Amino acid sequence: MEPAAIREAYAPVQRQLDELAGGTDSARLREIADEILTVARLLSREPGLRRALADVSRPTVVRVDLLRRLLGGKVGNETLALLTDLVSGRWARPSELLNATERLGADLLLAAAEREGELAEVEDELFRFGQIVESNMRLGLALGDSTVEVERRAELVRSLLEGKAKPVTVRLAELALTGFGGRSLLTSLTRLVELAAARRGASVAYVVMASAPTEAEERTLADKLAQMYGRQVSLKVEVKPEVIGGVSVRVGSDLYDGTVQRRLAEARTTLAR
């Protein structure tokens, strides 16, 4: 979970984004997202600019004027308005402004998927892509190699996903390559899955089982978790035969591990004492 100060600084932007998403078609939302993410790449390359725009010792009007002189005529009015709200926020570190800019781009892409009725599918596709990357060591190393240009790795992502996943999924997977929010590739994908679920008003439950559950079992588990947490829960199920039996469920920082593998490990620890 993000610190309260960061959530507070991002809140005005979130409100403006939600208003924009309510009356803007998905194609335009994707265009605005691309403009925002282009600015994020600029901030990533230019630490001096990041510092200048995030420096709360400088009056807000000065920081906003710098932004407008830099981007005026180069991005759309909606993009400039959103970035103005970002720069007007109080960021403890320049990296927080960069992370918020990336987050804004991701949120706009998710809003576009929502407008198209594809948000749940994008969420599932990002999760499945993360599973593929995690299970294939060579692929994970190739995509996570920061010594290779991002565009070359993005080409690999597109070759794997284009025509098989939604365009927003492909774009978000490309964003994850850059270390979204300063994270690793897999952690970036996980964060994007959770942002997609949050936009649907849901929490994500990561479930590990020895064999695939039936649809009825998934519904029962989802209903029980929804009752526990007081909100919709989106299950992300991973099948791992090595757990032998039982189920492990993680929601946020809460872990419920009832697998046979865990019980055997506890028994071995007890016997070794």
TrEMBL record:
GO cellular component: plasma membrane; proton-transporting ATP synthase complex
Membrane topology: Peripheral membrane protein
Compartmental location: Cell membrane; Membrane
Alphabetized GO MF terms: proton-transporting ATP synthase activity, rotational mechanism
Pfam family, one: OSCP
Keywords associated with the record: ATP synthesis, Cell membrane, CF(1), Hydrogen ion transport, Ion transport, Membrane, Transport
Domain of life, per lineage: Bacteria
PANTHER family the record matches: ATP SYNTHASE DELTA CHAIN
HAMAP family with a match to the protein in the record: ATP_synth_delta_bact (MF_01416)
Similarity comment text for this entry: Belongs to the ATPase delta chain family.
Function according to Swiss-Prot or TrEMBL: F(1)F(0) ATP synthase produces ATP from ADP in the presence of a proton or sodium gradient. F-type ATPases consist of two structural domains, F(1) containing the extramembraneous catalytic core and F(0) containing the membrane proton channel, linked together by a central stalk and a peripheral stalk. During catalysis, ATP synthesis in the catalytic domain of F(1) is coupled via a rotary mechanism of the central stalk subunits to proton translocation. This protein is part of the stalk that links CF(0) to CF(1). It either transmits conformational changes from CF(0) to CF(1) or is implicated in proton conduction.
Descriptive protein name: ATP synthase subunit delta
Gene source species: Planosporangium flavigriseum
